[in-house]
Amino acid sequence: MKILFVANRVPYPPFRGDKLKIYNLTKRLSTAHELHLITFAESEEDYTYINELKKIFTKIHIINLPKWKSYLNCLLALFSNIPFQVAYFKNRSMKRLIQNFISENEVDAIHTQHLRMAQFTTDINVPKLLDLPDAFSLYWLRRLNNQHNIIKRFFEKIEYKRLYRYEGEIIKKYNLNLVCSIEDLNYMIKEHQATSLKLLRNGVDLETYKSVGHDYSLQDTLLFTGNMDYAPNIDAVLYFVKDIFPSILKRFPNIKFIIAGQRPVKSVSELKSNNITVTGFVPELKTIYQNASIVVSPLRIGAGTQNKVLEAMAMGIPVVSGPIGFEGLEIQNSEGVFLEITPEGFASRVIELLLSQPLRETTGSKGQKIATEKFSWDTIALQLEQYCQLIGKK
């Protein structure tokens, strides 16, 4: 098949989030299909990755997305019903480029990444699917419910309402819409009465995150990973340090909490102390995981499944998580991940794991087995291939 991928970011380097998913899927699909890429560049650095992308894509087209123009688009969106997330990416050059590409190149299917990019492909008469990948309105609803600043809450309520309406309208225009968890799937069916929905899980690179035998005697390090300029991650570590970590410190005064992720904002950097390390960018996250006793995921904002949880499971490391990061896994409590709702419960579960090496080992081993069987990128790429064939030109 000839498949056009329309992505909101250059899918390289594949460290986290959107980039990681598109890179891993297309890397595998490219062995049997002809793939093309149209995407935005957020910086000059993005253009330096073209040679890496050429290993996957036959044709690559990149449109520059100046921040000043995106900010202007958002300002103008104040006087419309367009979600700010969509207005940020509004770009005539991108729309024209995609239309010209389709008129000049016969493709069997279009894969559009994220609700933000749907504005460029909804009206194109080619079999197409929208990889959301999670229910974006659910993410904003949770963000709104955790926002206590009156001014921010006002604007986030506007954004949630706009996204909810926009999401419900857009998904009707695609042959198929994909979400990454059962939780998101059920939400979309309930809220939008959508029928053209399928599941495409997030995955984990089992070659990179492969444990050769985790050292379960480690009893001194808690780990959180993720981009540290991303609102849900910022909220998670601030919440953990304020409401959960003090109880753990009382029992384990020498315990270390490592926050590993690029671009830490000021409020995160200021958490540094004798017990808390903020690493900034880590090129080899596997090494950080190998030295962790427990991975924590105290997210209160978000949707879908979390890379940090899947990577820890693949490495055989026990995880303690809030509902976000757990509910989309379709597992039972303790099958690699413990679900805890309250700060007290979260702290108690971490302490229980720190006190018991056999429990850490049993939990980690269960998670590794599930990650291997259920969340391999090879399996997920095969499923995407089948979806493209389902809607594609015969």
Write the layout of secondary structure elements.
Layout: E1 2-7, H1 17-29, E2 34-41, H2 50-53, E3 59-64, H3 67-77, H4 84-87, H5 92-104, E4 109-113, E5 128-131, H6 136-145, H7 150-170, E6 176-179, H8 182-192, E7 197-199, E8 221-225, H9 231-251, E9 256-260, H10 266-269, E10 276-280, H11 285-290, E11 294-297, H12 307-314, E12 319-321, E13 337-339, H13 343-355, H14 357-374, H15 377-391
Parallel strand pairs: 1-2, 1-4, 2-3, 4-5, 5-6, 6-7, 8-9, 8-11, 9-10, 11-12, 12-13
Description of the molecule:
This protein has 15 helices and 13 strands. 44% of the residues lie in helices and 15% in strands. It has a seven-stranded parallel sheet with strand order 3-2-1-4-5-6-7, sandwiched between helices. The chain has a six-stranded parallel sheet with strand order 10-9-8-11-12-13, with helices on both faces. By secondary structure, the chain is α/β, with parallel strands linked by helices. It is globular and about 65 Å long. The mean pLDDT is 92. The chain folds into two domains: 2-203 and 376-391, Rossmann fold, CATH 3.40.50; 221-374, Rossmann fold. The termini are close together.
